[in-house]
């Protein structure tokens, strides 16, 4: 079902054999948001004031995350058993509140987890970054190359995520994880205010980049983006249609569940090539901030820990699900994220 704004896509098969439908219109939301931001700039609204409001806005977003999480936890007790998340019903209230009891909580046809996964956090990240850029313009009568690179790299990342929004329907967040405080806080507060750390750092600590350094950083981000996009696209196509011409010739391993595991292409290089691309981009976002302070590199360290932890969770789930087939895959593809290192 399509109209000029929205394509409706089906998610993966749920435990009860049904598929939920999702509107694919995140990129349109980004375009409208950017258009409104440009209108505000034309009207003279001081978007640079966002820099002075970062802390109260982050506190409000955190409070909203708690309120949403309490609603999700309480409403989950009215959800049917098949709608509960596999790992979110341990009986420990604190853990279940954190990880999320219900897999796909909805109000009518409005899917709360799917909406929060990409739209408010990612678009909010773009808004905060633009506010930091405008603050630098106010302070220094222009935007530095470092600030422009950070804004450009991260806008590309957000635009790519929303342009390829349908791919999120096959991710661990949507398919396996419940919607609790972990994802609510991450989507509404952590992403827009922690991921914009490099831009806010540059407001206070300006950096002058030379042409050679800027070229090297752009190249690093380009390599990371290419690996990230190609590997994610390959995985998404294979999960949805293993007979698709772009993946049908790839080598696979059969599993007892009837599914097949890719052991060639990007997923024959390392077990998580998308994480490798993600980390290369994370480094490229931090390098424009120079080396005078560790703060801009917090994101790289945090994201490395996050992805290594997520990779370990994925390993446990895949080993439990695929058994000997997963062990065979690990023998064929011994490196998890970094070739010849990890």
Automatic annotation (TrEMBL):
Gene Ontology annotations for the cellular component aspect, listed alphabetically: endoplasmic reticulum membrane; nuclear inner membrane
Bilayer topology annotation: Multi-pass membrane protein
GO biological process: cholesterol biosynthetic process
Domain of life of the source: Eukaryota
Enzyme class of the recorded protein, top EC level: oxidoreductase
UniProt signal peptide: none
Amino-acid biosynthesis keyword on record: no
Pathway: Steroid biosynthesis; cholesterol biosynthesis
Documented EC number(s): 1.3.1.70
UniProt KW keywords: Cholesterol biosynthesis, Cholesterol metabolism, Endoplasmic reticulum, Lipid biosynthesis, Lipid metabolism, Membrane, Oxidoreductase, Steroid biosynthesis, Steroid metabolism, Sterol biosynthesis, Sterol metabolism, Transmembrane, Transmembrane helix
Pfam families xref list: ERG4_ERG24
Protein name (record): Delta(14)-sterol reductase TM7SF2
């Amino acid at each position: 079902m399509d109209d000029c704004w929205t394509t409706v896509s089906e998610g993966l098969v749920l435990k009860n054999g049904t598929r939920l439908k999702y509107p694919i219109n995140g990129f349109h939301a980004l375009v409208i948001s950017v258009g409104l931001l440009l209108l505000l700039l034309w009207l003279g609204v001081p978007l640079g004031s966002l820099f002075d409001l970062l802390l109260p806005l982050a506190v409000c977003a955190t409070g909203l995350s708690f309120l949403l999480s309490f609603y999700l936890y309480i409403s989950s007790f009215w959800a049917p058993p098949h709608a509960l998340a596999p790992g979110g019903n341990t009986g420990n209230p604190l853990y279940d509140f954190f990880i999320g009891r219900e897999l796909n909580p909805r109000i009518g046809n409005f899917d709360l987890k799917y909406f929060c996964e990409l739209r408010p956090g990612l678009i909010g990240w773009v808004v905060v970054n633009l506010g930091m850029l405008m603050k630098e313009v106010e302070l220094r009568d222009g935007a530095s190359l470092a600030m422009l690179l950070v804004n450009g790299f991260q806008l590309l990342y957000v635009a790519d995520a929303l342009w390829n929004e349908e791919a999120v329907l096959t991710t661990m967040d949507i398919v396996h994880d419940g919607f609790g405080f972990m994802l609510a806080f991450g989507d509404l507060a952590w992403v827009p205010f922690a991921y914009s750390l490099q831009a806010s750092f540059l407001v206070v600590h300006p950096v002058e980049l030379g042409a050679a350094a800027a070229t090297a950083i752009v190249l690093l981000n380009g390599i990371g983006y290419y690996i990230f996009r190609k590997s994610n696209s390959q995985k998404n196509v294979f999960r949805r249609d293993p007979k698709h011409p772009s993946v049908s010739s790839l080598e696979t391993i059969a599993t007892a569940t009837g599914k097949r595991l890719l052991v060639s292409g990007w997923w024959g290089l390392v077990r998580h090539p998308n994480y490798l691309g993600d980390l290369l981009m994370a480094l490229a976002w931090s390098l424009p901030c120079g080396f005078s302070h560790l703060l801009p590199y917090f994101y790289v360290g945090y994201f490395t820990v996050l992805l290594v932890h997520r990779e370990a969770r994925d390993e446990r789930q895949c080993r439990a699900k695929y058994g000997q087939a997963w062990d065979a895959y690990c023998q064929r593809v011994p490196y998890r994220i970094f070739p010849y290192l990890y």
